[in-house]
Amino acid sequence: MTDEQFKDAPIFDADQHMYETPEALTKYLPEKYKSAVNFLKVGHQTRISILGKIRDYIPNPTFDKVAAPGAWEAFFAAENHEGKTLSQMARERVMEATPSFRAPEPRIVELDKQGVSEALVYPTLANLVEHSASEDPELCSAMIHALNQWMLETWGFTHENRLFMTPVINLGLLDEALKELEYVLNNGAKVILIKPAPVRSWKGWRSPALPEFDPFWKEVEAAGLPVVLHASQPPLDDYINQWEPPNSAVFTEMSAFRWIALGHREITDMITSLITHGTFTRFPKLRVASIENGSAWLDPLFHDFDDFYKKMPQAFPEHPIDVFKRNIWVSPFWEGSVEDVVNTVGWDRVMFGSDFPHPEGLVEPKGYWRYAEGMDEKRTYDFMGDNARRFLGLPVRNPAELATV
Protein backbone atom coordinates (compact mmCIF):
# COMPACT_ATOMS: atom_id res chain seq x y z
CA MET A 1 0.00 0.00 0.00
CA THR A 2 1.58 3.28 -1.06
CA ASP A 3 1.23 6.59 0.73
CA GLU A 4 -0.55 7.98 -2.31
CA GLN A 5 -3.21 5.28 -2.09
CA PHE A 6 -3.49 5.87 1.62
CA LYS A 7 -4.31 9.53 1.10
CA ASP A 8 -7.29 8.54 -1.00
CA ALA A 9 -8.96 6.78 1.92
CA PRO A 10 -10.43 9.29 4.43
CA ILE A 11 -9.53 8.03 7.88
CA PHE A 12 -12.04 7.54 10.66
CA ASP A 13 -9.85 7.04 13.72
CA ALA A 14 -11.89 4.92 16.12
CA ASP A 15 -9.50 5.47 19.02
CA GLN A 16 -8.43 8.99 19.97
CA HIS A 17 -8.41 10.55 23.43
CA MET A 18 -8.75 13.81 25.28
CA TYR A 19 -6.73 14.78 28.33
CA GLU A 20 -9.11 16.15 30.95
CA THR A 21 -8.38 18.88 33.47
CA PRO A 22 -8.89 18.15 37.20
CA GLU A 23 -12.16 20.06 37.15
CA ALA A 24 -13.58 17.37 34.88
CA LEU A 25 -14.28 15.34 38.01
CA THR A 26 -14.91 18.17 40.46
CA LYS A 27 -16.59 21.16 38.78
CA TYR A 28 -20.05 19.61 38.64
CA LEU A 29 -19.70 17.16 41.50
CA PRO A 30 -22.47 17.75 44.09
CA GLU A 31 -21.31 19.40 47.27
CA LYS A 32 -21.94 16.32 49.43
CA TYR A 33 -19.35 14.37 47.41
CA LYS A 34 -16.67 17.09 47.17
CA SER A 35 -14.54 15.66 49.97
CA ALA A 36 -14.40 12.25 48.26
CA VAL A 37 -12.33 13.50 45.29
CA ASN A 38 -9.13 15.46 45.80
CA PHE A 39 -6.03 16.36 43.85
CA LEU A 40 -3.12 16.35 46.30
CA LYS A 41 0.53 17.39 46.15
CA VAL A 42 2.74 14.42 46.98
CA GLY A 43 6.33 15.60 46.79
CA HIS A 44 6.68 17.27 43.39
CA GLN A 45 3.74 15.42 41.89
CA THR A 46 0.00 15.94 41.93
CA ARG A 47 -1.94 12.77 42.64
CA ILE A 48 -5.63 11.96 42.74
CA SER A 49 -7.30 10.69 45.89
CA ILE A 50 -10.73 9.05 45.73
CA LEU A 51 -12.45 7.96 48.94
CA GLY A 52 -9.32 8.76 50.90
CA LYS A 53 -6.96 6.59 48.84
CA ILE A 54 -4.25 7.72 46.44
CA ARG A 55 -5.07 6.14 43.08
CA ASP A 56 -1.90 5.22 41.21
CA TYR A 57 -3.30 3.75 38.01
CA ILE A 58 -2.86 7.14 36.34
CA PRO A 59 0.13 8.61 38.18
CA ASN A 60 -0.13 11.98 36.37
CA PRO A 61 -3.85 12.91 36.63
CA THR A 62 -3.47 16.59 35.68
CA PHE A 63 -1.88 15.81 32.29
CA ASP A 64 -0.07 19.18 32.30
CA LYS A 65 3.02 17.33 31.15
CA VAL A 66 2.60 14.05 29.32
CA ALA A 67 4.62 11.47 27.49
CA ALA A 68 4.57 12.38 23.82
CA PRO A 69 2.35 10.50 21.38
CA GLY A 70 4.17 7.36 20.32
CA ALA A 71 6.65 7.46 23.23
CA TRP A 72 5.92 3.80 23.97
CA GLU A 73 5.71 2.64 20.37
CA ALA A 74 8.84 0.48 20.62
CA PHE A 75 7.43 -1.33 23.66
CA PHE A 76 4.07 -2.16 22.11
CA ALA A 77 5.61 -2.99 18.75
CA ALA A 78 7.79 -5.58 20.54
CA GLU A 79 10.93 -3.63 19.55
CA ASN A 80 12.09 -2.70 23.06
CA HIS A 81 15.56 -4.12 22.46
CA GLU A 82 17.14 -2.03 25.25
CA GLY A 83 14.70 -3.35 27.85
CA LYS A 84 13.46 0.07 28.96
CA THR A 85 10.46 0.44 31.25
CA LEU A 86 7.47 2.52 30.21
CA SER A 87 8.47 5.09 32.82
CA GLN A 88 11.94 5.40 31.30
CA MET A 89 10.49 5.81 27.83
CA ALA A 90 8.04 8.43 29.08
CA ARG A 91 10.74 10.48 30.81
CA GLU A 92 12.76 10.57 27.60
CA ARG A 93 9.90 12.15 25.68
CA VAL A 94 8.01 14.44 28.05
CA MET A 95 6.08 17.36 26.57
CA GLU A 96 3.61 20.02 27.63
CA ALA A 97 0.01 19.11 26.86
CA THR A 98 -0.95 20.96 23.69
CA PRO A 99 -4.32 22.64 23.06
CA SER A 100 -5.27 19.80 20.70
CA PHE A 101 -5.16 17.42 23.66
CA ARG A 102 -7.55 19.62 25.62
CA ALA A 103 -10.24 21.08 23.34
CA PRO A 104 -12.18 20.33 20.13
CA GLU A 105 -11.25 23.28 17.93
CA PRO A 106 -7.49 22.67 18.05
CA ARG A 107 -8.16 18.93 17.71
CA ILE A 108 -9.90 19.62 14.39
CA VAL A 109 -6.78 21.48 13.26
CA GLU A 110 -4.71 18.47 14.35
CA LEU A 111 -7.00 16.09 12.44
CA ASP A 112 -6.46 18.12 9.30
CA LYS A 113 -2.69 17.85 9.77
CA GLN A 114 -3.01 14.12 10.33
CA GLY A 115 -5.19 13.56 7.30
CA VAL A 116 -7.99 12.27 9.52
CA SER A 117 -11.59 12.94 8.59
CA GLU A 118 -13.40 11.87 11.77
CA ALA A 119 -12.57 10.39 15.15
CA LEU A 120 -14.09 8.85 18.23
CA VAL A 121 -12.67 10.69 21.25
CA TYR A 122 -12.56 9.04 24.67
CA PRO A 123 -11.85 10.51 28.09
CA THR A 124 -8.61 9.43 29.77
CA LEU A 125 -9.06 10.23 33.46
CA ALA A 126 -12.34 8.34 33.38
CA ASN A 127 -10.31 5.11 33.14
CA LEU A 128 -9.92 5.00 36.91
CA VAL A 129 -13.24 6.45 38.12
CA GLU A 130 -15.48 3.39 38.18
CA HIS A 131 -12.86 1.11 39.69
CA SER A 132 -11.75 3.64 42.32
CA ALA A 133 -15.25 4.73 43.37
CA SER A 134 -16.93 1.33 43.14
CA GLU A 135 -17.37 0.89 46.90
CA ASP A 136 -19.75 3.87 46.88
CA PRO A 137 -22.13 3.39 43.90
CA GLU A 138 -23.84 6.74 44.47
CA LEU A 139 -20.49 8.57 44.37
CA CYS A 140 -19.57 6.62 41.24
CA SER A 141 -22.75 7.70 39.46
CA ALA A 142 -22.25 11.29 40.59
CA MET A 143 -18.65 11.37 39.33
CA ILE A 144 -19.69 9.95 35.97
CA HIS A 145 -22.44 12.55 35.59
CA ALA A 146 -20.03 15.33 36.59
CA LEU A 147 -17.54 14.11 33.99
CA ASN A 148 -20.21 14.00 31.29
CA GLN A 149 -21.36 17.52 32.17
CA TRP A 150 -17.79 18.77 31.90
CA MET A 151 -17.30 16.90 28.61
CA LEU A 152 -20.45 18.43 27.15
CA GLU A 153 -19.36 21.92 28.20
CA THR A 154 -15.75 21.56 27.06
CA TRP A 155 -15.91 19.30 24.01
CA GLY A 156 -19.59 18.78 23.27
CA PHE A 157 -20.76 15.28 22.45
CA THR A 158 -20.31 15.94 18.74
CA HIS A 159 -18.23 18.63 17.08
CA GLU A 160 -18.57 19.59 13.41
CA ASN A 161 -19.75 16.04 12.71
CA ARG A 162 -16.07 15.07 12.83
CA LEU A 163 -15.40 14.51 16.52
CA PHE A 164 -17.68 12.09 18.31
CA MET A 165 -17.10 12.18 22.03
CA THR A 166 -18.06 9.21 24.21
CA PRO A 167 -19.94 10.10 27.39
CA VAL A 168 -19.66 7.40 30.03
CA ILE A 169 -22.49 5.40 31.56
CA ASN A 170 -22.12 3.23 34.65
CA LEU A 171 -24.86 0.68 35.28
CA GLY A 172 -24.23 0.11 38.96
CA LEU A 173 -27.43 1.94 39.85
CA LEU A 174 -29.91 1.18 37.08
CA ASP A 175 -32.16 4.18 37.67
CA GLU A 176 -29.15 6.51 37.54
CA ALA A 177 -27.93 4.82 34.36
CA LEU A 178 -31.30 5.41 32.70
CA LYS A 179 -31.20 9.08 33.75
CA GLU A 180 -27.66 9.39 32.37
CA LEU A 181 -28.69 7.76 29.10
CA GLU A 182 -31.55 10.24 28.74
CA TYR A 183 -29.17 13.12 29.54
CA VAL A 184 -26.57 12.22 26.92
CA LEU A 185 -29.18 11.46 24.24
CA ASN A 186 -30.92 14.78 24.86
CA ASN A 187 -27.57 16.51 24.40
CA GLY A 188 -26.69 14.94 21.06
CA ALA A 189 -24.49 11.96 21.94
CA LYS A 190 -23.95 9.63 18.98
CA VAL A 191 -22.16 6.91 20.97
CA ILE A 192 -21.64 5.93 24.61
CA LEU A 193 -18.77 4.37 26.56
CA ILE A 194 -19.21 1.48 28.99
CA LYS A 195 -16.46 -0.12 31.04
CA PRO A 196 -16.05 -3.82 30.18
CA ALA A 197 -16.46 -5.07 33.73
CA PRO A 198 -19.01 -6.05 36.34
CA VAL A 199 -20.81 -3.16 38.00
CA ARG A 200 -21.40 -2.61 41.69
CA SER A 201 -24.59 -1.61 43.45
CA TRP A 202 -25.31 -1.67 47.17
CA LYS A 203 -26.21 -5.35 46.67
CA GLY A 204 -22.73 -6.22 45.37
CA TRP A 205 -21.15 -6.96 42.00
CA ARG A 206 -23.24 -7.96 38.98
CA SER A 207 -22.81 -8.41 35.25
CA PRO A 208 -24.50 -5.55 33.37
CA ALA A 209 -25.71 -8.18 30.88
CA LEU A 210 -28.11 -9.85 33.32
CA PRO A 211 -31.85 -9.46 32.63
CA GLU A 212 -32.26 -6.97 35.48
CA PHE A 213 -30.47 -4.43 33.27
CA ASP A 214 -32.78 -4.99 30.29
CA PRO A 215 -34.56 -1.63 30.75
CA PHE A 216 -31.26 0.07 29.93
CA TRP A 217 -30.41 -2.07 26.92
CA LYS A 218 -33.96 -1.71 25.63
CA GLU A 219 -33.57 2.07 25.56
CA VAL A 220 -30.12 1.86 23.94
CA GLU A 221 -31.45 -0.40 21.19
CA ALA A 222 -34.51 1.79 20.63
CA ALA A 223 -32.28 4.85 20.27
CA GLY A 224 -30.00 3.04 17.80
CA LEU A 225 -27.09 4.18 19.97
CA PRO A 226 -23.78 2.35 19.44
CA VAL A 227 -21.83 1.29 22.52
CA VAL A 228 -18.05 1.18 22.94
CA LEU A 229 -16.30 -1.15 25.36
CA HIS A 230 -12.91 0.54 25.81
CA ALA A 231 -10.08 -0.85 27.91
CA SER A 232 -9.73 0.80 31.32
CA GLN A 233 -8.37 0.01 34.76
CA PRO A 234 -8.73 -3.79 34.90
CA PRO A 235 -11.31 -5.20 37.31
CA LEU A 236 -8.99 -8.02 38.40
CA ASP A 237 -6.59 -5.99 40.54
CA ASP A 238 -7.67 -7.64 43.78
CA TYR A 239 -7.06 -11.08 42.32
CA ILE A 240 -3.66 -10.16 40.87
CA ASN A 241 -2.67 -8.61 44.21
CA GLN A 242 -2.96 -12.06 45.75
CA TRP A 243 -0.08 -13.17 43.53
CA GLU A 244 2.27 -10.21 43.94
CA PRO A 245 2.49 -6.91 45.86
CA PRO A 246 -0.05 -4.31 44.73
CA ASN A 247 2.58 -1.59 44.32
CA SER A 248 3.23 -2.98 40.83
CA ALA A 249 -0.30 -1.99 39.75
CA VAL A 250 0.86 1.44 38.49
CA PHE A 251 0.28 1.22 34.76
CA THR A 252 3.75 2.39 33.79
CA GLU A 253 5.43 0.00 36.22
CA MET A 254 3.37 -3.17 35.81
CA SER A 255 5.32 -6.39 36.14
CA ALA A 256 5.55 -9.05 33.46
CA PHE A 257 3.32 -11.27 35.60
CA ARG A 258 0.62 -8.60 35.80
CA TRP A 259 0.73 -7.90 32.05
CA ILE A 260 0.41 -11.59 31.19
CA ALA A 261 -2.08 -12.55 33.89
CA LEU A 262 -4.43 -9.69 33.10
CA GLY A 263 -4.28 -10.53 29.42
CA HIS A 264 -7.62 -9.86 27.76
CA ARG A 265 -9.84 -11.15 30.51
CA GLU A 266 -11.96 -8.03 30.94
CA ILE A 267 -13.10 -7.82 27.31
CA THR A 268 -13.60 -11.56 26.82
CA ASP A 269 -15.57 -11.82 30.07
CA MET A 270 -17.73 -8.83 29.16
CA ILE A 271 -18.55 -10.06 25.68
CA THR A 272 -19.09 -13.61 26.90
CA SER A 273 -21.54 -12.26 29.46
CA LEU A 274 -23.42 -10.20 26.86
CA ILE A 275 -23.78 -13.33 24.74
CA THR A 276 -24.32 -16.12 27.27
CA HIS A 277 -26.54 -14.05 29.55
CA GLY A 278 -28.67 -13.33 26.49
CA THR A 279 -28.48 -9.54 26.16
CA PHE A 280 -27.76 -9.70 22.43
CA THR A 281 -30.52 -12.24 21.88
CA ARG A 282 -33.09 -10.11 23.69
CA PHE A 283 -31.82 -7.00 21.90
CA PRO A 284 -30.41 -8.21 18.56
CA LYS A 285 -30.02 -4.74 17.05
CA LEU A 286 -27.45 -3.57 19.60
CA ARG A 287 -24.15 -2.41 18.06
CA VAL A 288 -21.14 -2.85 20.36
CA ALA A 289 -17.46 -2.21 19.60
CA SER A 290 -14.36 -3.42 21.41
CA ILE A 291 -11.75 -0.64 21.33
CA GLU A 292 -8.13 -0.82 22.53
CA ASN A 293 -8.54 -4.38 23.72
CA GLY A 294 -6.54 -5.92 20.89
CA SER A 295 -7.59 -8.94 18.87
CA ALA A 296 -5.40 -11.86 19.99
CA TRP A 297 -8.26 -13.06 22.22
CA LEU A 298 -10.66 -13.62 19.33
CA ASP A 299 -9.48 -17.01 18.12
CA PRO A 300 -9.38 -18.72 21.56
CA LEU A 301 -12.74 -17.18 22.47
CA PHE A 302 -14.32 -18.40 19.24
CA HIS A 303 -12.84 -21.84 19.92
CA ASP A 304 -14.47 -21.86 23.36
CA PHE A 305 -17.77 -20.63 21.96
CA ASP A 306 -17.86 -23.40 19.38
CA ASP A 307 -16.69 -26.06 21.82
CA PHE A 308 -19.21 -25.27 24.55
CA TYR A 309 -22.07 -24.81 22.11
CA LYS A 310 -21.49 -28.41 21.04
CA LYS A 311 -21.28 -29.59 24.66
CA MET A 312 -24.28 -27.71 26.01
CA PRO A 313 -26.39 -26.25 23.18
CA GLN A 314 -29.37 -26.00 25.54
CA ALA A 315 -27.54 -23.21 27.41
CA PHE A 316 -27.35 -20.94 24.36
CA PRO A 317 -30.42 -19.30 22.81
CA GLU A 318 -28.37 -18.82 19.62
CA HIS A 319 -24.98 -19.97 18.42
CA PRO A 320 -22.59 -17.59 20.22
CA ILE A 321 -20.40 -17.07 17.16
CA ASP A 322 -23.41 -16.00 15.09
CA VAL A 323 -24.34 -13.54 17.82
CA PHE A 324 -20.82 -12.13 17.97
CA LYS A 325 -20.71 -11.61 14.21
CA ARG A 326 -24.07 -9.87 14.28
CA ASN A 327 -23.49 -7.50 17.19
CA ILE A 328 -19.74 -6.86 17.65
CA TRP A 329 -17.14 -4.66 15.92
CA VAL A 330 -13.44 -4.91 16.88
CA SER A 331 -10.55 -2.47 16.65
CA PRO A 332 -7.26 -4.40 16.93
CA PHE A 333 -4.20 -2.80 18.43
CA TRP A 334 -2.34 -0.81 15.80
CA GLU A 335 0.57 -3.24 16.28
CA GLY A 336 -1.80 -6.20 16.26
CA SER A 337 -3.31 -8.29 13.53
CA VAL A 338 -6.15 -7.15 11.31
CA GLU A 339 -6.22 -10.74 10.10
CA ASP A 340 -7.32 -11.94 13.56
CA VAL A 341 -10.52 -9.97 13.17
CA VAL A 342 -11.03 -10.75 9.51
CA ASN A 343 -10.71 -14.50 10.00
CA THR A 344 -13.20 -14.53 12.84
CA VAL A 345 -15.63 -11.64 12.56
CA GLY A 346 -15.15 -10.50 8.97
CA TRP A 347 -13.92 -7.48 7.03
CA ASP A 348 -16.99 -5.38 7.71
CA ARG A 349 -16.38 -5.46 11.49
CA VAL A 350 -12.74 -4.37 11.80
CA MET A 351 -11.90 -0.73 12.60
CA PHE A 352 -8.69 1.29 12.71
CA GLY A 353 -7.62 3.11 15.88
CA SER A 354 -4.39 5.00 16.57
CA ASP A 355 -4.81 5.74 20.33
CA PHE A 356 -3.58 9.32 19.70
CA PRO A 357 -2.28 11.19 21.71
CA HIS A 358 -1.46 8.51 24.25
CA PRO A 359 2.17 7.37 24.49
CA GLU A 360 1.10 3.78 23.71
CA GLY A 361 -0.46 5.04 20.49
CA LEU A 362 1.06 6.15 17.23
CA VAL A 363 2.82 9.49 16.71
CA GLU A 364 0.14 10.08 14.08
CA PRO A 365 -2.41 7.75 12.48
CA LYS A 366 -0.49 7.48 9.21
CA GLY A 367 2.21 5.68 11.16
CA TYR A 368 -0.01 2.62 10.96
CA TRP A 369 1.38 1.83 7.53
CA ARG A 370 4.60 0.64 9.13
CA TYR A 371 2.59 -2.25 10.55
CA ALA A 372 -0.05 -2.66 7.84
CA GLU A 373 -0.86 -5.98 6.28
CA GLY A 374 -1.69 -6.28 2.61
CA MET A 375 -4.99 -4.56 1.84
CA ASP A 376 -6.54 -3.80 -1.51
CA GLU A 377 -8.32 -0.50 -2.12
CA LYS A 378 -11.71 -1.61 -0.82
CA ARG A 379 -10.23 -3.10 2.34
CA THR A 380 -8.28 0.10 2.90
CA TYR A 381 -11.46 2.15 2.75
CA ASP A 382 -13.27 -0.32 5.00
CA PHE A 383 -10.61 -0.69 7.68
CA MET A 384 -9.36 2.90 7.75
CA GLY A 385 -12.79 4.47 7.96
CA ASP A 386 -15.95 3.06 6.44
CA ASN A 387 -16.45 0.27 8.95
CA ALA A 388 -16.39 2.81 11.78
CA ARG A 389 -18.86 4.93 9.84
CA ARG A 390 -21.13 1.93 9.51
CA PHE A 391 -20.83 1.34 13.26
CA LEU A 392 -21.98 4.90 13.95
CA GLY A 393 -24.60 4.84 11.21
CA LEU A 394 -22.80 7.44 9.06
CA PRO A 395 -22.47 7.43 5.25
CA VAL A 396 -19.51 5.52 3.82
CA ARG A 397 -16.81 7.38 1.86
CA ASN A 398 -15.64 4.77 -0.64
CA PRO A 399 -16.37 6.23 -4.12
CA ALA A 400 -16.90 2.75 -5.56
CA GLU A 401 -19.65 2.02 -3.03
CA LEU A 402 -21.21 5.46 -3.37
CA ALA A 403 -21.51 4.95 -7.11
CA THR A 404 -23.69 1.88 -6.56
CA VAL A 405 -26.09 3.59 -4.15
Explain the layout of strands and helices.
Layout: H1 3-7, E1 11-17, H2 23-26, E2 37-42, E3 45-50, E4 53-55, E5 65-67, H3 73-76, H4 86-92, E6 94-96, H5 99-102, H6 104-114, E7 116-122, H7 129-132, H8 137-154, E8 158-159, E9 163-165, H9 174-186, E10 192-194, E11 199-201, E12 204-206, H10 214-223, E13 227-230, H11 237-240, H12 256-262, H13 265-276, H14 279-282, E14 288-291, H15 298-311, H16 320-327, E15 328-331, H17 338-344, H18 377-392, H19 399-402
Parallel strand pairs: 1-7, 7-9, 10-13, 13-14, 14-15
Antiparallel strand pairs: 2-3, 3-4, 5-6, 8-9, 11-12
Structural account:
With 405 residues, the protein is α/β, with parallel strands linked by helices. It has helices at 3-7, 23-26, 73-76, 86-92, 99-102, 104-114, 129-132, 137-154, 174-186, 214-223, 237-240, 256-262, 265-276, 279-282, 298-311, 320-327, 338-344, 377-392, 399-402, and strands spanning 11-17, 37-42, 45-50, 53-55, 65-67, 94-96, 116-122, 158-159, 163-165, 192-194, 199-201, 204-206, 227-230, 288-291, 328-331. The strands form 5 sheets. A 4-stranded mixed sheet has the order 1-7-9-8. Strands 10-13-14-15 form a 4-stranded parallel sheet. It has a 3-stranded antiparallel sheet with strand order 2-3-4, with no helix packed on it. It is globular.
